[in-house]
UniProtKB/TrEMBL annotation:
InterPro entries: Cell_div_FtsQ/DivIB_C, FtsQ, FtsQ_C_sf, POTRA
Record-given protein name: Cell division protein FtsQ
Bilayer-spanning residue ranges: none
One Pfam family this sequence matches: FtsQ_DivIB_C
Species for this entry: Paracoccus yeei
Gene that encodes it: ftsQ
GO cellular component, as recorded: cell division site; plasma membrane
Presence of keyword Transmembrane helix: yes
Superkingdom of the organism of origin: Bacteria
Region (Disordered): 1-39, 311-340
Record-stated family: Belongs to the FtsQ/DivIB family. FtsQ subfamily.
Amino acid sequence: MPGLNPFGPRPAEGGAARPAPVRPVPARPAPKTAVRRDPAPSRLAYRLNRMMLRPLIRRLVRIGLPAFMAALVAGIWLSDETRRAHLSAGIDGIVDRIQNREAFLVHSMEIEGASAVVDKGLRAMLPVDLPASSFDIDLESLRERVLKLDAVEAVDLRIKPGGTLSAVVTERVPAVLWRHARGIELLDKTGHRVASATSRDVRGDLPIIAGEGADRAAPEALALLDAAGPILPRLRGLERVGERRWDVVLDRGQRIKLPEDGALRAFERAMAMDQAQQMLSRDVTVVDLRAEARPVVRIGLDAQNAIRRARGQQEIGPDGKPIPTETTAGKAGKTKKNSG
């Protein structure tokens, strides 16, 4: 039964049952109600969050700000002149030790394909005396300087293992002599100057061209010389006239005047006429081919007098005036004596 003491004497034993003491039940604490937090951020947090969404601001914070701080610290440290001097000396020392290592030193120079004059000039163009560091030799700048030599067409510069500077030179081959008002020069097949010559006998094996502007038309001149096969032994040279056309000069005072355009074609036609009719073997002084439709031939003085004799006309002299005959001279003498 409620209220009875279970540990008290039982009724059978003669003891009276005592009720259990009533104990007060503590009251349960009232549950605490949690305060709900507003999920919305503050105005400042919202604006900062929106700013961080911009790529520029993110780069500025992640890269710009650390870089600015590093530059500020470096600037403060380098503001002292003594620190700057020590830093510069240390960097120069490191660079000098690396550049002057044995692996980077150039001890000698070998040149292939160059004449003695070009060899001497190329060695004089080295910016430093050997042995020197390969870092002190600018191959590209040296190549540009070597190509300024008139006799050099191409050059290959490289530093070989073992500290050897190799230069493989391709020189220009003289193809023609050019005589002008300032002297005589040797030209290659493109008309580029190779060297100067003191006289025609220096390279007697080369053909000669003359006149202002002949160097710019050297390729055309060489084509004309190739076409002059049959009369090449008689050829004395080519003369540039008015910087626009050629005259072919032969021995015995003969001259072939070529047109400004189509000079090679006109010269080949003249060679064909010579082979068919032996035109240049006759007493002909000038063959004028400037007018393609009407070539003109000027005959010599002997041929002119032969024609005049055949026609019964009086012969002429080099000045173009008639030569007085003996009869005419005698009559002139008698007339002069009678008048005296």
